[in-house]
Amino acid sequence: MKKIVLFFASVIAMTGQHVLAGAPESFEKAKIALREKVYFDRQTSDVGDLYCGCRWTWMGRSGGRIDLKSCGYEVRADSNRAQRIEWEHIVPAWVLGHQRQCWQKGGRENCKTSDPVFRVMEADMHNLSPTIGEVNADRSNYSYGVLPSTPAQYGACPTRTDFKQRVTEPRDAVKDLVARVQFYMHDRYGLSMSRQQQQLFMAWNRMYPASDWERERDRRIAQVMGHHNPFVTGERTWTLGHKPSREGLTGQGTSTPVHRLAEPPVQVAEQGGSAPVIGNSASKVYHLPVGCPSYEQVQEKNRVSFDSAVDAEAAGFRRAGNCR
């Protein structure tokens, strides 16, 4: 163990990376750090919460009560969650964990207790932002997209969700942040992103330059995490087919030992093996080449091919119910 620690220290020295003692080791600690170090003065600002721009009053160590009138918010269905601040994973925890073996064996709770990589991703402060609980619940693990025909659902709040398509469109004011956080997480942790999602976020990245708050937020988080989002600072750009740096899986800039970050991330069946994952454009259901008996039965006119199950789900498809 002593040799491993010394090796890790030498890697840090050579690469110029810094590990800060204050970098959160869990989602719960990340929320507290975000309140104390990043959003401590934002509750009454014009920026407001992520999806609706509402103001709030801090309560407890990392929670808060929403001032619904401050942004003209109207409750859609869940008045309890509409009243409170929750911490949204811009890249959903489901996306972070679904590609890993721990998720297959016990879901999110199992990943939190058994997988150090998942804990690092789940606690990454760049990917977290306060928002209204009801909107957080409605967004679920849906992909982002454009919903021009979906009516308003929360009064004056412009964020909308299409539950049938499993798509959420955030308000324009945060599309800059959303896009560059997506780039950051997929680059840093080697996550898969569909071509459709890449094109969407590249468009938002061009349309919405980084705001003063996005840059300040990045600066504050970097003081805790020990690294910036390079897609905010301009050190890195995303192009179609971008090759991820996977820096978050090497131990650089984290307090997780290098040898533990190399755990296998995914089962071959989840990725579809060498054969493509087949989606049905009519039913929005996808089939894996292994374990899905209807894989060969999708009509040619309705066939959509994906490189992986992750890409299919990012495009709004769900797994066929008869897959084993």
Automatic annotation (TrEMBL):
Keywords tagged on the record: Endonuclease, Hydrolase, Nuclease, Plasmid
Instruction: Write down the SUPFAM superfamilies for this protein, in alphabetical order.
Output: Ada DNA repair protein, N-terminal domain (N-Ada 10), His-Me finger endonucleases
Give the protein name, as stated in the record: Endonuclease I
Q: Which family does it belong to?
A: Belongs to the EndA/NucM nuclease family.
GO MF entry, a single one: endonuclease activity
Indicate whether Hydrolase appears among the record's keywords: yes
This protein's source sits in the domain of life called: Bacteria
Hydrolase as UniProt keyword: yes
